[in-house]
Each structure stands twice: as C-alpha cells, then as structure tokens.
Amino acid sequence: MVKSFAPLATSAALLVAAATAASVPDGTWPTSTGSVQFSEAHVVQAGEVFDGKMQTYERSDVTCQGQTESSASTAVFMLEPGATLKNVIIGKNQMEGVHCDKHDCTIENVWWDDVCEDALSVKGGTASSVTTVTGGGARSADDKVIQHNGFGTVKIDGFYGEDISKLYRSCGTCGDKQRKVSVSNVYVVNPGNAVVTVNKNWNDEATLSNVWVKSSGDKVKICRWSQGNANGEPSILGDGPSPPLCQYSESDVHINGDVSQATGNSTSSSSTSNETPSSSTGSSSTATQDGFDHLVTGVGVCRADASQPESSETQQQQAEEATQQTQQSSASASSKKSDENDDAKNEEQTVPPSGSTSSAESATPSGSSTSTDSATKSSSTGSATDTSSNDSTTQSSTAGSSTQSSSAGSATNTSSKDSTTQSSAAGSATQSSTTGSTTTGSDTQSSTAGSTTQSSAAGSATQTSTNSSTNSSTSTGSVPDGTWPTSTGSVKFTAPHVIKAGEVFDGKMQTFDRSDITCTGGEGQKDTAVFLVEAGGTLKNAIIGKNQKEGVHCDDHDCTIENVWWDDVCEDALSVKGGTASSVTTVTNCGARSASDKVVQHNGYGTVSIDGFYAEEFGKLYRSCGDIPRTVTVKNVYAVNPLVSVVTVNKNYGDKATLSNIRIKTSNGNSDVKVCQWSQGGSTPSNLGDGPSGTLCQYSESDVQINQ
C-alpha cells in the first residue's frame, strides 16, 4: 500500500528556527595530520574549545572489545557542559569514543574512524539542554553512533555515516524521559538498522530533513520507533513518518540519489516550550501507527511489525562509572545511579551555562621553582571562543562545512597535553578557553591581543597562542632544589611538534618523546627533535623523554623555554640557532640530566639567558659554537656533577658569559670544578683555560658555591 503524505498542522508551541551552515557531506573521509595516544580520558572543560587540528586521538591503554559494556573511563574525550570538541579524528583504540555526560556540548567536525561500542554518548542535562553535532562522521558502527541517554535535545547537522547500525538512538532502557533529536543534511551509507530510533511511549520527538541514504539493500528504515522498557529490552513498534514521533516527509529523504546534487541550506527547529512542536520544514505524514520501509525508489510501503524485539539494544553501563573526572560527580554520593538509568535527580540538576569558564592554574612540579616576574605573558577573558591563528596553509575539510587546519612545513604533528589528559594540535594553537595570567622569567615574551587559549583538566595550566610578542628583561627565578618533577602522562609524536610564532604550548608536565626514534648517539637533525619552536614561540611545563635525539630546536632564535625538563638528554637538550645580534632566547626554571655532552647548544647569534636551571650528570650546561660573538647569562643554577664545565665559550670569537648564584655539588666532594671554560674556536676547538676572565667569563668567587 502506498501512503500519501499530507501537511501536518502547526502546533501552538513557540518554535525557534535556526538556519544551519552545514552542508551535506560527500562521503570523503578526512586525512589525519598525526597521531596522539592518551593514557586516560581527556577532559574538555566548561567553556573550553579544544581544536585537535585533524589529528587522530585514541587510547594507549584501551582496545575495542566490541559491544562489551564499558564506561566513560574507556572514552578518549570527556566533555563538560559548555565544552567544545572540534577538528578531531577518533581512532580505533578506545571503547566509548566521546562522552558528554552532563549534556550541553558542542561537537564540530569530529570523525570516528572505527566506532567501538558508541561514538558519542549524551547523558544528563535538563529538558532545555541541547548538544549539537555539526559536520563530522563515523564508520564501522555495529550498533549506535550517537547514544542519547539524558534529557533535552541532540541536534545533528551535516554528518556522514558509513556502515553503521543506527546514527542516533534514544535510549530504550533508560526510563521514562522525553528526548528530542533533529537530523538534517546527513549522508548515510548502508544503515543496518535505521537512521534514527526513538521511543514512542516516552514521547520522543525526531525531526528529519535533507537526509541522503545510499544502500545496497532493498529497504531502508529512516525513523524507527520502539516501546521503551526500563526493565528489559525495548520492542520495535514500527517505522516511518508518525508526527510528532517521527517528523519528516517523502521529500526530506533521498535514497540512492546523487549526493553531489544535495543542497545544504536546511532549517532546523526546536521548541521553546514543552508542548509538541510543529512539523519540520516541508510536509509531514499524517499520524499513523504503521511502520514504513523505504524502497530504493523512495516509495513508502506499509509494514506491520509491532512487538518485534529490537536487536542489539541492551542495557548499558549498569554499574556506576568509577571515574576520577570531576564532571562525573553528582550532587551527592547518595544520589549516584548508573549512567544508563539516568536518575532524574542527577539529570535535572543545574548545569553551568555554555559560556561559563573555569580558572586554569599553572601546573608546576613539586619542588621546582617558578618564575613570578611581573611581565604577564598572556590572559584571555570572558567565555571561551575559538580564535584560530593564521596558518600559512589550511586544509579544507573533505566532508561537511567545517575547516580542517594544519600547518605546512617539515613537521606538522603538533600536540598539547594537560596534567591528566591530552590534547593535540598541528599547526598553530587554536584551542581556546579562559585563563588567568601567566608570568615568566627573564627576557620573557609578553603577549598581546589575538590570543587563543587551551585549558584542560581542572586546576591545570592553559595553553595560549598569541599574535605578537615583546621582550622584558627582569627575572625572579630561584635556585632549584634538585627535585625532579613527576610526569602526569606520556605523549608520543611521530614527527616534531611545531610551536608557531606567538603560540604558547603548555605541556601540563606530561612526558613528550618520539614513537619512531630512539637515542643512538651521533649527530642528529631537527627532524629527530620532539619540539620545533619558531621565533616568538613558547614551550612550557613539559618533560622531554628519552626517545629522541635533538630534544628541542629553536632554529630562528627568540624562543621562550619555561619549566621544561629533559629526562635523559641524547645529543643536545636545546639547540638555539639563527637570529640576529639582538635575539634573545630565555630558558627559565628548567632541568636536564644524563647529558654526555651539551645541554644547551648555542649556534646562532645573540643571547641565551638561563635562569633557575637544575642540571645533573652532564658534560656542559651551555656551549657556544661557531665563529660569531655570542652572549650567555647564567644565574640561579644548581649543577650536580658537571663532567666538563658549567659554561664553555670561545675567546677568539668575542663571546661573553655572565654567571651569578651558581650552586655546584660533586658526589666525590671534589671542589676543583670548572665553572666557565674558554676555548679557541675552530674546526677542532682547543681549551685555553677557565675561570673569571674579563668580559669573556664574568663572575666573582662569591657568585659560585661548591659543595655547600
């Protein structure tokens, strides 16, 4: 029987129409710009915009176990209300993908490469909560792509699904809660079950428009409706248009049509009251209890399958999620319920508005010194917004309307991490949140307008990218006490991370090294480094692991290195090159150990300022190299067992070294330590002497304390 479609009368509820900018995707999958693995779920805080720069994010400690029930602890990202996740590819090593456990999240241009249990879980919230999913896509989903357990509305616009069971499922076992979904401008290839499944008895409402489906099968279910069952499995009642349960018309669905002819100027509507909304754009069918199969011709054929059990619909997450993330906590311990049950007492609590912010404090290691100079490095105010810096090259998104951004050049794999979780960026930092000001030591950069900020777990420091910088010249760096910082996590890069001019990269005291390089001795190049810092770039709060050769490169000088620790120096820890006579690179409150040769190698022009450095078992803390005059200032240093000297400079090239407040400890109690050594520069430099010597080595006896 062929059904005719008639317009549905508009309800009395007030509707707010919102034109979306998303276009129907063409089925092209984005190219990953790099890979980042987390050892635990990354928390994107309220008000934060996390821009992943189209890198692939997954877990280092989790693999997909199919449809085995799991919890938020196996996710890659956990979003707080008001958080935004954008330009990210979710890899296969995870189970729960992305969690939005208190609703009101923004998901933009996020792609799930191989869905495990669910791609996105939306929980909590209130009847007015809205989570938006714009652009992006998912493939290889045995069951649901988007699981909606909470209250409120999920809006899906411009999404691509391939070889999936269901694009959206309103939880059929979570209890009597009304849920709403709007789906527009989507392209779904081979949906195994339905595009959308909702619960009739719990008054769900689904609005669909501009839905494009490609299927190798004979029949396609667009909107399916079930009898929700909080005490068991839901049963399927039917499918097809059935306002207000499934609101769409025949013209809203295109099956096996030419998607290149799709238009993306859709309008989605949402009700501002709890009353039943009117039909979606275009006409809707009259109310019916019957289900529909859409033939490949697009003609609806009536079918009766009432009370048919729904396959793959199981109760999820029956045990409480024992997560450590603060967003998981409920109002009180006694009110905690399983996530799948979505206890109303938890769901209807007040949630922070999407523009709310959280403070971000600098993460410094226990016992390490921090600079407190008055020159404020950067701050952002108000609610977090995504402000992308200008990359020389951008990569357009291949599906959806969102732009994918990545840097061009020799190294594009960029990553930033927080103390309990990790984030990543390739190219300039465009991750944005709110933050307090951050101060630096001597010769620091002071950022100005145009900053973008990334912050992650509560209490952790922020990452800020700025557009301009200036130099100040004072420091209050203190002598370190020899305490080594504790790593908060591990991140491995497959290529050097580029920190662009004006960007502040905050590593949140995680350990960064390479997955493709080990220290083998001998000369390395910048492509064996962990970080490449451009002139005006800042690297802070990072531990450099042993799997690398060149550590950190500052190849155009004028870099800021703050609270960076080299755990096992290979060839060099920091290489400073290029620049001009007025260039200044600052190294403040850092540390390095196990360096058979140099810690800081200065090949360029200008000045290197080292303040508040801890060095242990090293050849030389600083070495001047080349036939041009260089200047170094070294103060507030604690050096344990220097093998050669603290500083070595070239007399014949007019180098200048100034040292003050140098503390040295030798394990054998020997006080015969070379503090400032001077050489005859050349292809085979020769040592001429050591000790104070005019402008070459400027310090006094009182500036150095040995074994005190």
From TrEMBL:
This protein's GO CC annotations: extracellular region
Signal peptide: 1-21
MF annotations from Gene Ontology: pectate lyase activity
GO biological process entries: pectin catabolic process
Protein keywords: Calcium, Lyase, Secreted, Signal
The enzyme's E.C. designation: 4.2.2.2
Enzyme class label: lyase
Sequence ranges of Basic and acidic residues compositional bias: 336-348
Requisite cofactors: Ca(2+)
Ranges of Low complexity composition bias in the record: 260-289, 306-335, 354-478
Pfam family, one: Pectate_lyase
Catalytic activity reported: Eliminative cleavage of (1->4)-alpha-D-galacturonan to give oligosaccharides with 4-deoxy-alpha-D-galact-4-enuronosyl groups at their non-reducing ends
Entry's localization field: Secreted
Annotated spans, Disordered: 257-291, 304-490
Family: Belongs to the polysaccharide lyase 3 family.
UniProt function note: Pectinolytic enzyme consist of four classes of enzymes: pectin lyase, polygalacturonase, pectin methylesterase and rhamnogalacturonase. Among pectinolytic enzymes, pectin lyase is the most important in depolymerization of pectin, since it cleaves internal glycosidic bonds of highly methylated pectins. Favors pectate, the anion, over pectin, the methyl ester.
PANTHER family registered for this protein in UniProt: PECTATE LYASE F-RELATED (PTHR33407:SF9)
UniProt protein name: Probable pectate lyase F
Organism for this UniProt entry: Phytophthora fragariae
Classification of source organism: Eukaryota, Sar, Stramenopiles, Oomycota, Peronosporomycetes
